[in-house]
Amino acid sequence: MASVNEGPMAENEERSAADDAAAEGDDRDGASGVAVDGVGKTYAGDGDPVRALDDVSFAAAEGEFVCLVGPSGCGKTTLFRIIAGLTDATDGAVRLGGTPITGPTTDMGVVFQEYHLFPWLTVEENVGFGLERTDRSDAERERRVDAMLDLVGLSEFRESYPKSLSGGMKQRVAIARSLAVDPSLLLMDEPFGAVDAQTREMLQRELLDVWASTGKTVLFVTHDVAEAVTLADRIVVMAAEPGRVAEVVDVDVDRPRERDDPAFGEHVARVRELIGARP
Amino acid sequence: MATDAGDRFDATELRTGLGLEDPRRLGRGAAGVAAFVVLWYAVSLTQPAYVLPSPVAVADAFAEEFASGTMTTALWSSVRHWVPGTIVGTGLGVAAGVAFSWSGLLDDVTAPLVRTLRPVPPLALIGFAIAWFGINDAGAAFIIAVGAFWINYYASYGAVEGVSDDLLDVGRTLGVRGDLDMVRSVVLPASLPGILTGIRTGLGRCWMLVVASEIFGVPGVGREILRASNNLLVDTVIAYILVLSLMYLLVDVAFRAVQRRVLVWRA
Question: Which of A9, A234, B9, B39 is the most exposed place for a label (fewest CB within 10 A)?
Fold first, then answer.
């Protein structure tokens, strides 16, 4: 991805300063960001109903980077789908900018673990997919696609089909695609889980750059504690059976964060302990 | 991309379709055909012509039928059955397969009907062909259309069923709303490879059905085969079978070239 300063993203750069300020403030009720409020999910299977999520509440302020971590089976993916509007919650509600989520919304960019690019569309067509459903003019759409491709450093590959891209490049396209319609929230489900360790670290740095330059609120689901500590302003630690919030950890470490920084290690240890702990 | 493919179309695509890009493979194929003809010739020497005519007799019959104009007339007549039958059957089959597979409601409503009608061979519908259309081109086209319909129905149905839910989810998060938009923007392109395979299978099957469709007296290649059979003119039968084979080969090569171009995005 291109560095922060290269992207022709004037509109977003203007926004980012204000958003950063908001993120530093106390807007943690999610009034202008995202608020997950008492969300529960019960699956009525053939046998006893399964309680996948129970009273999950947390919020991310506008412009804040929040990671969700937890052991497998803690309902991370269910929660991700509920926030995305792809699955209905049994109880509670998710609000984005104060509006309850009742289904998928284009005010939220969603990035999946396995990229899920449309294989029959070129890179630029993938990025422009959501824009075709907006009332922007053709020229505006084209500018927007150009800006997004530049943001993720894939302008040269605009006419390639996904089959010829590496995993890391595919995920960059998926991120550009989700950001193209300029959503206020970027929701990501283990987006770097399918790439090798080296690519993963590069993508993490690039995501932080994109976040800094666009000022989006980011909700990032991962099972990798070090990844969460690398990225997040705050980490929502989940516990399993039923899936619930164990604790919310603030990450008070200056960016860029180095893994050999003692403060980094302390946060990782703290989150690991919370995940391991059983009630 | 599209213009590149267009430029290459006549050269590479067609060569690939005909197997010309690999001389060794082509040579082996030619050797196989030659060996078969030699074996055929040898066996034919031991048999009367009404059991197995020699390749030479078949070539003679071919030349004779062609020279008299009978073959051209019959072929033109069969093309008039094949083209509308294949187009209508394919169109309806793909449309029904996609619609019934995508819509749970339509699927529920039609599933018992489909299971009842599916085992009926097109040939069993000749009575309807005659009653509804008469002993004419439309009646023959109807038989072919029925065959094309089912192949395309099942291929499209399966292809749509195989579209990953994840792609549908991505579509929804990117603002796709409503069945029409989803089918047009995600379901159809995602299932296109399977649909095209069905169409290709159907194109071949429809040439086979040409024979069946002309069984009740409509002129065409199939009619000539049946008439020659009745007169034990086996050499003429084989000559007309070769006509069907050549037509199939021609259509299949052309369709494969189109398929490759359309699916250029595939790995």
Answer: B39
